[in-house]
Design brief:
homotetramer, alpha/beta, Rossmann fold, seven-stranded mixed β-sheet, 11 strands
C-alpha cells in the first residue's frame, strides 16, 4: 500500500495460521478478510480459543447452512461456529448481538438495501412483495484479482448489469428482511457495474401500502436520528456516491411517486467503508464500548 | 467540431430562419435539433411549405397538448402542426407513419424502454402494472450548456439518481405503451447519471404474467429478427453500453427470475446515435425508401 | 461540502471583511484562500493588526512587483505588505522565515518542481540551463468556476498541453531556483491537463553536469531524509499520483540516462494537499512549533 | 468484437499458418498484427512467396540487427527478410519505399514524434541535441493482456511515467531522425501513462538554433500542406487527443518560447489509428495506388 508508506512503521506482516493465532494470549479480537470458505477455517480455532472474530466474508452471514450451500455452491465448512455467529449491521443488529463469538460484517450491496428497508418493514408501512432494488457499484467491489473483465479499457466508459437474476447477496438480504417481522420477503435485486473506483448507489422501488412519505421519514428519524453513520437527506435530494467516499456514512432519501403509489428510495455509500472495512471497525468500537466513531474520522 | 476538421469542406453554416427555410425550393427534408418550444416555431412554417420535418425535440412526441403542458410547463406552441405529426421510433412506428408531415424522433431513454417493451405489451405476455425501469446514462445526455453540476470534478467518480419521480420522458413512454393495445400503462422510471461520456443502459423489471422466457424471445425474434438495429442477445448475456458506442444499434436481452416471477430485461444503446441523431438518419432513410442503414456505417 | 456533513458541527460561516477580521482579538492566524488581487486586500489590514497570514494566492509569492505585474497583468495591490512576506515551501524555505508577517504558500506546479530541484541546484550538481519540466495535472487544479472548457465531456478521455510557453507559475519557480545560489535559472515549463480529479506528476529533464545518480540521491537524502512529507523512491520506481492522494506527501525519484547524460527526475503529489491546502496546514504547524504532521494524518 | 456484430457477416476466422498463407494465390497483401519475434516468422515465407507484407510489429522497424538485439533482447529472427524491408511512415517515407517486400508500419510514439520533427531536422532549422520529448498515452497502448498493472482501479485517476530512460521505441525514432540528414540524433524520450482508453499527446522541446516560428510553420506547410492526415494547427492552439479519436489524423502545432529560445511542439493522435491500424491501411492504399483515405472515413 504505497499510499500508506510512512504511516505503518512498526506494523508487522506475518504468515497467518489459525492455530497460531488461537494460541496467542495478547490478542482480543481478530478481523478476517479472506475469501468465503477460508474464513470459516480461521474462525473456528480462533473463536474456540475465546477471542472475538469479526469476519468480512460471507461464511457467517447466512444462518441456514442449506441456503449457504445453495448460494455458494459448497457445504458450509463449520456449522458449529456458524451457530455461534450473528449478523451485525450495527444500526439494525438484534439485541444481544455482542454476546456472539463471531460477528458477520455485511458488505456493500446488503448494507445499501438493509439500512433503508429494515425499519420500514419492521414498522409494516411497506409491502414485502414487489420490491425492486437496482444497485450501481464501483469497480473495487470486484476485488483485486487481475482479470480481462476488469481491465481498464474493458470497464472504462461503459456500464452493464450482471449477476441477474440471483446474486449471492440476495440470500442474506432476504434473511435479514425476513427477520424484520413480517415473514418471508422476496426481492428483485439487479446489480450493475459503474465506471468508477469506489462508491455504490442503490435505488429501491417499493409499493407504499398507503403510507405517506412523512410516515416513512418519521420511522427513519426515529430509528436513525441519533446514529452517526446514517444520514437522512431531504425528500428532494438524491444521495451521490462521491459525498460518501472515505467516510463510513450511508446517505438515504426517499420520495413518493403519487402516479404509481410507490416509494422510490435511494442510498449511497463507499463500498470499501460502510460497505465493509469501515463497518468492521464500527462493530469493534461498539463491542468494546468505545465511541462508535473511533478511528473513523469523517462522520 | 474539431474532430471533423477536414471532413466538412463545402459545408455552409447559416443563421437559421423558419420562413427563409420554408421559402427555399431546393430542400426536401429538414432536421430540427433545437430546444423544445423553439422546434415548434420552426416546424410550422417548414411543414406548411410542404417540406418534411424530422424533429429531435420533445415538441411533437406527445399527441395530447394537455399532457405536453403538464410535463413541459408551457402551452404547446403550435397544436395545428402537432396534429399532423407522428412519433417515429422506426421499429415500432404505426402503419402509415410516412404520410405525416412531421416526424418526432424519440430520444435515448424512451428508445431504451420502448424497443424491448412494446412488442411484449402488444402480445399481452406481460402485465401493464408493476413495471419498473432504471436507466443509467452517460453525461452527454445532459447537453452542452456549461453548468456547475456537470463540471468534470462533480461528475467524475460518482453516480446519482435524478429526475425522480416524474421525469419528462415518462409522458411519451406511457403514451406509446398505451398504444400497444392494452389500455393505460403506468411506469416507474428511475433515471441515473453515470460517469461516462456516452451510452445508456436500462434494466426493466416486469411481472411475467405466467409467460416463459422462451415466449418473450419468440415475440422479440418475430418483431425484430430482420431489423438491422435491434440485436437480441442470448439470455445469459447482458448488454454493455461500450459495444453500442458509435453505432445505431440497441442491444437487448432478458432473463426470467423464477423466484420473483419477473422478467428482467436489459438494453444498451449509444444515447447520441440510436438515442437520437442516428435514429433521425434512420427515419430519413426509411421515408426516402433508401436502405435503412445508409450513412450509418456500423450495424 | 456534503462529504463533511456531520463533521463540521459548530463551524460558523460568516461574510468576511478584512477590517473586521483585523479587529478581532481571538484570532492568531488567518488562512487566505481567495483569488490573487483580492488576497492582498485582506492581507494588509490583517497583517498590520499583528496576526499571522498564511496566503494561498499568488499575491505574495513573487518578491519583485514588476515581475508580478508582468505575469499577472496588474499592479501589485500592496507592496508594503509584500515586503514583509516570505515564500514558504517548508522543506526549502530560507532561515528566519517564521519572522515574516505573511507566509506565501506555494501551489501545485511549483512544489512539484522546486522540491526535487532546489537541493540539486544548491549543491551545484546540475546545470541551470537546459532544464525542461513537463507536468500533468488533474482537473481540480483549474478551480471551481463552471466553464465549457472543464465540462465533463470536454475533459474526459482526452489530454492536452496548455499555458505554453509562459505559464504564470514560472515566475515564482525561477525566482526560488535563482535563490538556490547559482544565479539566474531559466526553465522550460510545459503544463498539461490530465483526465483525473486530483493529482499531479512532473517529469524534469536536466543535464547532469557530470554528476552521478548516486550524487543526486546523496544530496536528496541529506536534505530530505528526515522530513515526513518528502519520500525519496528508489531509482527504478516512478512515483504514481494515486499513491499521494489525500496525503501531504510528495514522492520523488530520479534516473540517469547514460545515452543523453541527463537526469530524468519524476515527482508526484496531490495538488489539493501538498500542492496547496495541506502545505498551508504544515506551515502553520511549523510556525506554531507543533508537530509538522498535526491534522495531516497520512505521511 | 461485439461492437462490430452485424458488420462482419461473411468474415472467416482461420487458424493462421505462414506456409499456408504463402501457398495461397488469392492473396496479394498480408497485414501482420502479431508480437515481435513472431512477425518475422510469418513475414519470411509470405514475402518470399511474392506477397506484400504490412507488418505492425517491431521486427522490421530497425534496419540494424544489432540495435534490434540491444533493444528487444533477442536475435533478429530473419535478417534476410529484414534487408528487404522498409520503414513506412507514409508522410516521411523515403523515395522508392513501395518496392520493398515488407513495409514496417510505425506505432504510436514514433509517429507522434517523427511527423513533427522529421521535416525540421531535414531542413536543418533545429538542432539535433537537447531534444526532449514527453508523451502521454492512453491505456490501450499497453495491449490486451490482463495484468494487475492495468486493472481498472490501478490505472483510473492516476498518472505515471514509465519506461525511462530507454524505451524500446527510441531505437527506431533515432534511426529515422538520423536519416533526415544531419547525422546522429540522440533524444530524451519520457513516456507516461494517462487514465484514458485511447489517444496520445506528445510535447517536444527543441532548441531553435535561431530559426523563427514562421520558419518552422513554413517548412511544415511545405511538407504536409497537401497531406490529408497531418493537420497543422495555429500557433496558439494546442492539439487535444479527443479530436483525433477514431480518425487517422495527427494534429500538430508549435510555439516559440523567446525566454528559452526553444520551440515547444505538440502533437496528438489516436494511438490505435494513425498510431498503428489506420496507418497500416493508409500504407496499403498508397501502395495500391488507391486514394490515400480509402476505408478511413474521417480526415
Amino acid at each position: 500500500m504505497p499510499q500508506l508508506r510512512g504511516s505503518l512503521d512498526g506494523l508487522v506482516f506475518e504468515k497467518s495460521d489459525p492455530e497460531a493465532i488461537a494460541a496467542r494470549d495478547d490478542i482480543e479480537c481478530v478481523f478476517l478478510a479472506v475469501p468465503h470458505g477460508v474464513a470459516a477455517e480461521y474462525a473456528g480455532p480462533i473463536a474456540r480459543s475465546g477471542k472475538q472474530v469479526i469476519d468480512c466474508s460471507a461464511d457467517f452471514r447466512i444462518s441456514d447452512p442449506a441456503v449457504y450451500e445453495e448460494y455458494y455452491g459448497q457445504q458450509h465448512p463449520d456449522t458449529d461456529v456458524l451457530s455461534q455467529a450473528v449478523y451485525v449491521l450495527p444500526e439494525i443488529a438484534k439485541d444481544g448481538w455482542m454476546d456472539a463469538s463471531v460477528f458477520a460484517c455485511p458488505g456493500c450491496y446488503p448494507t445499501s438495501i438493509l439500512v433503508p428497508l429494515f425499519p420500514l418493514i419492521s414498522a409494516k408501512i411497506i409491502g414485502t412483495s414487489g420490491i425492486v432494488a437496482n444497485s450501481f457499484s464501483g469497480v473495487s467491489g470486484a476485488g483485486k484479482q487481475p482479470s480481462a473483465a476488469f481491465a481498464y479499457c474493458e470497464v472504462n466508459e461503459s456500464a452493464r448489469a450482471y449477476g441477474i437474476p440471483k446474486h449471492r447477496h440476495l440470500s442474506e438480504i432476504e434473511e435479514q428482511l425476513g427477520q424484520a417481522g413480517q415473514g418471508e420477503v422476496v426481492l428483485q435485486f439487479n446489480p450493475h457495474l459503474a465506471p468508477m473506483n469506489r462508491g455504490i448507489i442503490t435505488t429501491i422501488t417499493v409499493p407504499s401500502s398507503g403510507a405517506s412519505i412523512e410516515d416513512l421519514y418519521y420511522i427513519w428519524e426515529n430509528w436513525y436520528g441519533k446514529r452517526p453513520y446514517v444520514h437522512i437527506l431531504p425528500m428532494d435530494t438524491r444521495p451521490e456516491s462521491k459525498y460518501t467516499i472515505d467516510t463510513n456514512r450511508i446517505d438515504i432519501s426517499a420520495v413518493k411517486d403519487e402516479r404509481t403509489g410507490n416509494f422510490v428510495i435511494t442510498s449511497a455509500e463507499d463500498n470499501l467503508m460502510k460497505g465493509l472495512a469501515g463497518q468492521a471497525i464500527q462493530i469493534m468500537n461498539l463491542w468494546q464500548g468505545w465511541d462508535e466513531t473511533e478511528g473513523l474520522t469523517h462522520a
